[in-house]
Amino acid sequence: MDQISKTVNSFLATLVGIGLICFASFVFLLASAQLNNSLLGDLLARVAGETARTARTESFAYWGQVGAEVANGLGYGLPVAGGGSGGAIITPVIVVTTVPGGTPAPTATKVAVSYVRSTPFSEGGLLLWRGLDARQQPLPFGVSLQNVRQQAAYALEQNPGDLLAIWLQNRVNQCWPLYTQMLQANYQDTNQTDAIITAADSLISQCNPRLYEAYARKRWATLSNWLATLPPDETRAEAVLGGLRIAIGQKLDGPARGVRPEDTIEVSVQSIPEFALPSLTFRLTAGTLNRLLGEGNWQPNSGASSLHTVPGLLFPETAPEPALPGEADLAAPTPGAPDTAASSAEAGASSARPGVYIVQRGDTLYSIARKYNITPQALIDANRDRVGFNPDFITVGMELRIP
Question: What is the 3-state secondary structure (H, E, C) of the chain?
Answer without folding.
Answer: CHHHHHHHHHHHHHHHHHHHHHHHHHHHHHHHHHCCCCHHHHHHHHHHHHHHHHHHHHHHHHHHHHHHHHHHHHCCCCCCCCCCCCCCCCCCCCCCCECCCCCECCCCCCCCCCCECCCHHHHHHHHHHCCECCCCCECCCCCCHHHHHHHHHHHHHHCCCEHHHHHHHHHHHHHHHHHHHHHHCCCCCHHHHHHHHHHHHHHHHHHCCCCHHHHHHHHHHHHHHHHCCCCCCHHHHHHHHCCCEEEEEEECCCCCCCCCCCCEEEEEECCEHHHCECCEEEEEEHHHHHHHHCCCCCCCCCEEEEEEECCCCCCCCCCCCCCCCCCCCCCCCCCCCCCHHHHHHHHHHHCCCCCEEECCCCCCHHHHHHHCCCCHHHHHHHCHHHHCCCCCCCCCCCEEECC
